[in-house]
């Protein structure tokens, strides 16, 4: 007997995936599973489901994301604190996190409902922006937190520290604070290392640093990372969470980053293999044509 009595569906707003979302609703209704739909899903199937809010999704036993990695990142930030597991069906381009192929969706769901799946718990980041001792904003990220110059083709100056231990003064286009999940995203293109999801660590990756010796550093996720923007009253930077949420930083503002209390729960097919994902998505071991 399945313990997934209520399942949420979060769908990318793309008419091209409507048939697959419709098939998913058919599958769940045939098994008398209650469905909670987000606005994207309801927009694709207005005659079948009504849109529910995030509170209703947080009460689900499982949420299925039909879309790309960006859709899953947005959903993960919302649902992770509630401990709701997420299964991703890839209707995007890359599909690092949404790893179920559309043609395999029904077979995988049959296995999941039978209790046959692989569960991962992914480290997330919690952050706050401080100004003169006041907290301006709380942030949460699955992949990364990025500070970069608001102006084009100009460096910013910032200090980094780990707890109360000073690391360095940097001059660069910015810096990426990446989880193991985010180590294969923006941080990878910036020269950062790939960190296995089972490693409890965070990567600090300078973006185009002025000094070539200013290299990425991997630190334990059990510490607080502090990044202080330097400069004058005209110095401004942009802080971005998962490339989706943006906030402005002024000189002397501090971004404080720690581990989010609740990890992101991801469900994968039984056949899931992290290194197989890397080989497929990064084209490892392939001969050039």
State the main characteristics.
289 residues; Rossmann fold; Tumour Suppressor Smad4; 6-stranded mixed beta sheet; elongated
Characterization of this structure:
By secondary structure, this protein is of the alpha+beta class. It has two domains: 6-122 and 263-281, Rossmann fold, CATH 3.40.50.10330; 125-259, Sandwich (Tumour Suppressor Smad4). 19% of the residues lie in helices and 37% in strands. The chain is built from seven helices and 18 strands. It has helices at residues 18-30, 39-44, 54-58, 69-79, 105-113, 186-189, 274-281, and strands at residues 6-11, 34-37, 62-67, 86-90, 118-122, 125-131, 134-141, 144-149, 156-162, 165-172, 174-178, 201-207, 217-220, 225-229, 236-241, 245-250, 254-259, 264-268. The protein has a six-stranded mixed sheet with strand order 2-1-3-4-18-5, with helices on both faces. The chain has a six-stranded antiparallel sheet with strand order 7-6-17-14-9-10, with no helix packed on it. Helix 4 links the parallel strand 3 (62-67) and strand 4. The longest helix has 13 residues, at 18-30. The mean pLDDT is 94.
Number of strands: 18
Query: What is the domain tally?
Result: 2
The outline comes out as elongated
CATH topology of the largest domain: Rossmann fold
Number of separate helices? 7
Task: Give a quick account of the main beta sheet: strands, pairing sense, barrel closure.
Answer: 6 strands, mixed
- Helix/strand-derived class? alpha+beta
Instruction: Give the strand line-up of the largest sheet.
Output: 2-1-3-4-18-5
- Point out poorly predicted stretches: none
Instruction: Give the percentage of residues in beta strands.
Output: 35-45%
Taken in chain order, the helices and strands follow as EHEHHEHEHEEEEEEEHEEEEEEEH
- Proportion in helices: 10-25%
Global mean pLDDT: 94
The first-to-last residue Cα distance is 50 Å
What's the CATH superfamily of the largest domain, by name?
Answer: Probable inorganic polyphosphate/atp-NAD kinase, domain 1
CATH architecture of the largest domain: 3-Layer(aba) Sandwich
The radius of gyration is 20 Å
State the name of the first-level CATH class of the largest domain. Alpha Beta
């Amino acid at each position: 007997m399945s313990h997934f009595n209520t399942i949420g569906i979060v769908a990318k707003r793309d008419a091209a995936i409507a048939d697959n979302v419709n098939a998913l609703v058919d599958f769940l209704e045939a098994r008398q599973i209650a469905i909670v739909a987000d606005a994207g899903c309801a927009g694709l199937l207005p005659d079948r489901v009504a849109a529910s809010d995030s509170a209703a999704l947080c009460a689900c036993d499982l949420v299925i994301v039909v879309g790309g990695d960006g859709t899953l990142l947005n959903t993960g930030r919302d649902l992770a604190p509630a401990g709701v597991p997420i299964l991703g069906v890839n209707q995007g381009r890359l599909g690092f996190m949404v790893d179920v192929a559309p043609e395999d969706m029904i077979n995988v769901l049959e296995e999941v409902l039978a209790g046959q799946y692989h569960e991962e718990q992914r480290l997330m980041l919690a952050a706050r922006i401080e100004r003169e001792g006041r907290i301006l904003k709380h942030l949460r990220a699955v992949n990364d937190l990025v500070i970069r110059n608001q102006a084009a083709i100009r460096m910013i100056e910032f200090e980094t520290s780990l707890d109360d231990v000073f690391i360095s003064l940097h001059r660069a286009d910015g810096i990426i604070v990446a989880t193991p999940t985010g180590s294969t995203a923006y941080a990878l293109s910036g020269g950062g290392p790939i960190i296995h999801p089972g490693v409890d660590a965070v990567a600090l990756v300078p973006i185009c640093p002025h000094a070539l010796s200013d290299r990425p550093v991997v630190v334990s996720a059990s510490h607080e990372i502090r990044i202080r923007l330097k400069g004058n009253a005209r110095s401004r930077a942009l802080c971005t969470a998962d490339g989706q949420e943006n906030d402005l930083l002024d000189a002397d503002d501090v971004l404080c980053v720690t581990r989010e209390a609740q990890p992101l729960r991801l469900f994968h097919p039984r056949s899931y293999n992290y290194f197989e994902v890397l080989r497929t998505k990064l084209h490892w071991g392939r001969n050039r044509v």
